[in-house]
Amino acid sequence: MRLLVCLFVLSLISETDKGEPISVHVKEVHRTQDEGTDKGTWFHIIAVVETKAVVYNLKCDEFLSLEKRDFVVRCFNISAGKDYPARKFPKSISFWQPEDKVEGQTLVLYEIADEKEK
User: Fold this and answer.
1) Deepest of 8, 29, 50, 75, by most Cβ within 10 A of its Cβ?
2) Is residue 33 within 8 Å of 67, Cβ to Cβ?
3) Which stretch of DSSP H or E encloses residue 29?
């Protein structure tokens, strides 16, 4: 189910929509994981990032396959206290660059769970 949600978010972005370039500062990152199965483990990332005018609460789910020993569904790895270039879409934020594509992995975007003006 989570994979379908992640793929749905990706499908919302057309090839011609490059998003609005923004720069964000990451204030907080929280990672949790589900109990693993023989197939792999889901990880859940919640982050608070801000631009000069807006604070975003983001969420992203990724899946590590034990069979491949690699991520199959992957979120961009962000760290608190750092600045990142990104692209904002209506319901998501992407930290991925075109050269980040990895064969066999789905690179998912952070869903905007909430946003508010500063």
Assistant:
1) 75
2) no
3) strand 20-33
